[in-house]
Specification:
Shape: elongated
CATH architecture of one domain: Up-down Bundle
Strand order of the largest sheet: 10-23-22-21-11-18-20-19
Largest sheet: 8 strands, mixed
Distance between the termini: 84 Å
Number of strands: 23
CATH superfamily of one domain: Calcium-transporting ATPase, transmembrane domain
Radius of gyration: 36 Å
Number of helices: 31
Amino acid sequence: MESQSTSPAKSTRPITGLSEEEVKKRLSQGLGNRSTIPTSRTYGQIFKENVFTFVNIVLFALGTTLVLLGRVSDALVSVGVIAVNVIVSVIQEIKAKHVLDHIALISRSSATVIREGERKKVDIENVVAGDILVLEPGDHVVVDGTVIGEDEVQIDESLLTGESEAITKHPGDSIYSGSFCMGGNACYQAEKVGSESLSNRLMVSARAFRRVLTPLQKEVNLIVRILLLVAIYLEVILVVNSTLEKVPLVDSIRMSVVILGLVPNGLFLAITTAYTLGAVRIAQKGALIQQSNAIESLSHVDVLCLDKTGTLTTNKLKVENLMAFNTTTETLCRTLGDFAASFPSINRTASAIAEAYPGTSHSVLESVPFSSDYRWSGLVFDEPDRSGIYILGAPETILPLLQLPAGQSLPVKEWTRNGLRVLLFAYSPQVVSLRGENNQPKLPPKLVLWGAIALADELRPEAKTTIENFRKAGVELKLISGDNPDTVAALAGQAGFDLSGGSISGDELLGLDPEQLKQQVMSRSIFGRVAPEQKDQIIQLLRSQGKYVAMIGDGVNDVKALKRADLAISLKSGSQAARAVADIVLLEDSFAVLPDVVQEGQQILTGMQDVFKLFLTRILYILLLIISTEASGGLPLTPKHNSIVSLLIVGIPTLALVAWAKPGKVSRTSIGQKIIHFILSPGLTLGLAGLGVFVGFYLVPEILTGVFSLKNGIEFDASGMGLSTAQSALTTFYVLCGLLLILFAEPPSRLFVGVNKLSGDKRPAYLVTILLLVYGCILAVPIFSKFFELTPLVWWNYLLLIGLAALWGLLVRWFWRKRLLGRYLGIEAGNE
């Protein structure tokens, strides 16, 4: 072997690259790097998904028909609530789109190309097939290509493969977009650009937008679909009856709108408002909610799958321990510092050593960068004060070449068990080449051990607290990583991870049959050396066992698993593909915000309990009233009466109750037996009481309006004063009872405690007072009362209605406290 060697001779042939004319020609031929893959959903997709639902289409069609028939005001009140719902949803999701597009814009990298023999900075969209690109440490690979020339580089492909170690790329090797250069300098020639590149092909699979419904949304959809079937059935009866009785078309359509009012579109608005309020609060804490239901979704999560690098750790190493052999500690530290300062390529290991032991850069005769293939790096110096070969590598690679004195032991196993990455530093005084045949790296035969160094992944300061918060919330954590399972497990233990499930590698999973695989996935908590397709398989198995799964990912290799999960979470620094499919994007790259999102989700659920109660109670008594009166060919309420009742007793109150809700663990029975227990008594009694009020004011209008007549043979015009008076009285009665129901849902004092526990919050009482005054103003101001078709009553009629409403409230509270209907149906729900 030669006593002195330099790196292989570099080619002196200059690289000139393409000419500007060739670039223009290739751009015109469609060979540029322009891609049509969006950074987020389009405006058209957002609009379509929020507007063109079945219920929306039906209501818009009826509204349009009313406009054509000249009933513009009826049309406005009929579609007003659903229009507000659409607007709120669209605005929220467009805001999320703007943030994601901005992230993609500021993270879009430029590229250095060689054209006509000169280096130029160009936008990545202006790179064409055949371009020669320059790659330096820190640069992203923007297109697929082949390394050319004589140099080699170290490439991090973790966003594509999940492997965190750098891979050395030699001349002739392929490199792929989505990776980046960690060390070395080289040129590569663009081969596959635009939609043909690997990262863009992987992103195509992520383009199909994912919309996963949460349990709450599924329950709302179920309720809406059932009520829609009921409404359709009643509509058929209405059509038959209107045909037989020859009811005018405009009256039939108005009655159709009232019947469709049974479909609780306001539930969607309440949920949307709750999601929007939560998204605004969470955005201030560092998380972007791209899918409006993501906050509530996280509160249902049973299992959270996450990666080690970038999630538990800061993606930065630090020197944890050092032990000198055959030299002094001072000499070892100084030499390590010089080694790190002199290395031409930058990686996490070199950065950690340089930070711990600042050194002086020396002229390097030859260098071999670290590679996961041979697991060592080396430098050859030939200077008076720094001469010889210095090797830094994995113990299993270096130990066979060392001659350890008898009785001398290394702390490798001990440090590894503690989750540390152990490297050995060795020296040879000979100045020889570190490359053998075919220019392949080769270690010298005899090395002297100088030291052992232990490196630790730097845990995020908030990791331990966050994991503890998830554990308290009952969320099971599974760590899925491409690194060694033992190292991952040790690091996870330091972060407070539950290691009772043990660890397993991806290779071990490959040899299992489906039943064994399911058992291992359910019981293990640490998964190491896992391939991207195995992540997807793990998520699928967890979901098949009834788990509600969230996944945190940042790479293109995580996209399939993210799409498979019930909830997808991405880091801002992650790939564009991962951000595109994520429901939540962590803007600070920290998952410490997620426990706050869980609390927001719980707040939504507790608020929605009250919303369900108010909506379903109203639907029940309106449904009973419609069934009781439809046979007569008419309905007791017009669309405008129905709208003012809906607005005052469920529209405005539910939005307020959602905003004022308090977080808390919600059991799955909350939207079941407890809600049924709440709605039965007021729903059934209001159906009968409302019918009594309507019939009473309709049949004896002269007595109840204060007009006493002793004339013989009084005649009543059902289409005149009797009907309008009865409708106005019924509307007022339902408004009064509906406002009382708000106080029963959130009792501000013990007087209103029936089935729900004491809230103590006075805000609902203030809201009820304000809404009562608003309704009084509507009755008192002619322009408003005329618009809502409310016929004024005499003063003592209002006192009568107030008394009836109070009597109803006492009766319902007695029913609740005695649990009469609950016992009859076998529903034993205590105070919530």
